[in-house]
Amino acid sequence: LVETLLEMARHGENARKPPMDRLDFFSIVQDECMRLSEKALERQLRVVQHCGTQGAMVQSNEYLLRTIVRNLLGNAVDYAPEHTEITVEMNYDSARGGTLSISNYARDLSPADLENMTEPFWRKDSARTDRQHSGLGLTLAKSIAKLLDLRLSFSLSPGHLFTVTLQWPAPRE
How far apart are CA 132 and CA 121, in angstroms? Predict the structure, then answer.
C-alpha cells in the first residue's frame, strides 16, 4: 500500500504517464490468481476462472496494472462469504481490447453502495472495519485505472452478485 501511494504521489493527477509496455494481461491475471490461491483455500472459496483468452494484450505499466488486479482479486477473496464462489472472467478482442470481470456474492451490498465504493475509507459495515484493511484499495485502483487509461466499474445483480470490471483498449501497434 505504501509503495502504491508513493507511486501515485510521484505521478500525480497531471503528471506524465508512467512507462508503458505491451503486456500479456492473461499472464498477469494468472499470476495474481495463483498468489491468492492459498488464502482463497483457507477461506474455503472456490475460484472459477473463465480466462481462456491467452495472449490478451494491454499497453500498460506492469507494476501499476498488477497493483489493480491484486487489489480487485484480494477484495473478492477477503470479502466474499466463506464457502462461496469467486468468478474471474476475461474477454479480449485484439481490435477492441478487453475486459476483466471479478464477481463474488455480496449479500450486504445494495445498489446505492456502488456510488461509495471508491470513496476513501468508506466501509459498508463492521466487517470492513478491521485493522487489516486501509479503506483505500478501491480508491487507489480507480486512480491507477484512470492514470493508465483503463475503465473501472461496479455492478450488483438482484441476486447480490457483485462484479467489478476493468476494461482496456486494444494496444497500439
Answer: 13
Pairing of strands 46-50, 85-93: parallel
Q: 137-147 and 62-79 are packed helices; what angle lies between their axes, rounded to 10 degrees?
A: 150
Find the largest Cα–Cα distance for the chain: 48
The model's pLDDT over 143-162, given as tens digits with 9 standing for 90+, comes to 889 989 999 999 999 999 99
Residue 68 near residue 164, CB atoms below 8 Å: no
Q: Which of 78, 69, 72 is nearest to 128 (CA)?
A: 78
User: Could you tell me the pTM of the whole model?
Assistant: 0.83
CA 143 to CA 137: how far, in whole Å?
10
C-alpha cell at 49: 476462472
Q: Which residue has the cell 504521489?
A: 9
DSSP notation for the chain: -HHHHHHHHHHTTTSPPPP-EEEEHHHHHHHHHHHHHHHHHHTTPEEEEE---TT-EEEE-HHHHHHHHHHHHHHHHHHSPTT-EEEEEEEEETTTEEEEEEEEE-TT--GGGGGGTTSTT--SSGGG-STT--S-HHHHHHHHHHHTT-EEEEEE-TT-EEEEEEEEPPPP-
Tens-place pLDDT, residues 6-32: 555 555 555 567 899 999 999 999 999
